[in-house]
Design brief:
60 residues, mainly alpha
Length: 60
């Protein structure tokens, strides 16, 4: 049977490991969010840029 000290160390190590994993996932999700935001901004800009072109084509 493990002593209380060993259990505390084990739990502490698991928490540190989980915290590190959580931080990695948080960073990855943040990076994905920024990439999506950039893509959406580019799509909006492209849409506005081509809005006038499409309008003229439909009037021809």
């Amino acid at each position: 049977m493990k002593s209380d000290g060993n259990i505390v160390n084990l739990v502490g190590d698991e928490c540190a490991s989980s915290s590190s994993l959580f931080q990695k996932r948080q960073l990855e999700l943040g990076a994905r969010f920024e990439r999506l935001r950039t893509m959406i901004d580019e799509l909006k800009a492209h849409r506005l840029e081509n809005k006038g072109k499409w309008g003229r084509e439909s009037n021809s």
